Amino acid sequence: MSKQILIVDDDEKIAKLIEIYMINEGYNVIKADNGLVALEIIEQSEIDLIVLDVMMPGLDGISVCLKIRETLTTPILMLSAKDGDMDKITGLMTGADDYMVKPFNPLELVARVKSLLRRSSYSAQPIAPSASHIIKIGPLQVDKRRIPPLSMA
User: Fold this and answer.
1) Considering only CA atoms, which of 99, 31, 47, 96 is closest in space to residue 67?
2) Rounded Cα distance, 66 and 87, in Å
3) 52, 65, 95, 134: which sits with the fewest CB atoms below 10 Å from its CB?
4) Which residues of the chain have pLDDT under 70?
5) Using CA atoms, how far apart are residues 151 and 130, in angstroms rounded to an integer?
6) 93 and 66 in contact (C-beta within 8 Å)?
7) pLDDT computed for residue 151 by the predictor
8) What pLDDT score does 82 carry?
């Protein structure tokens, strides 16, 4: 079964470019031109990966990412014209799995999408609200409460 990619970008030309490359790789594509529409699609469809623009009118990509991370572990690749270190760090710290700066090389985007999908081959898992201290990745399970603190001695 083909993977389903959600492209969220208010710039139709960029969204279309990404769509063409994703379809050429055999992925199914759904597009949203704003954050609210993206959240509706995510509720109604099984999405394997999200390509998310940071700067959009209304609900921006950071807010969308935070909202998604409340319930899902679906891989998110952020795209942004913001190229400062703090912009990248903010994107990654709010839940993005990868961050690319515009303008970008479409072939690099494809490579990053493939990498993220490969790493998430266990499929996106809902986050269990009662067990937020448990991290599950395929058969691996980590209890964050049992990880000893780092010693800087």
Assistant:
1) 96
2) 15
3) 134
4) 1, 122-133, 144-153
5) 29
6) no
7) 54
8) 86
DSSP assignment letter at 72: B
Spell out the domains of the chain, with CATH numbers in brackets: 4-127 (3.40.50.2300)
Token code pair at residue 58: 């209304």
First to last CA, the chain: 51
Cis peptide upstream of residue 149 (ω within 30 degrees of 0): no
Predicted local distance difference test score (pLDDT) of residue 10? 95
- Transcribe the chain into DSSP letters: ---EEEEE-S-HHHHHHHHHHHHHTT-EEEEESSHHHHHHHHHHS--SEEEEES--SSS-HHHHHHHHHTTB---EEEEES--SHHHHHHHHHTT-SEEEESS--HHHHHHHHHHHHHHTTT---B--GGGTTEEEETTEEEEGGGSPPPP--
Closest CA to 51 of 71, 24, 80: 80
53 neighbors 9 (Cβ within 8 angstroms): yes
pLDDT of residue 56: 92
Length of the chain: 153
Predicted pLDDT of residue 80: 92
Q: Calculate ∠ Cα 14-32-43, nearest 5°.
A: 145
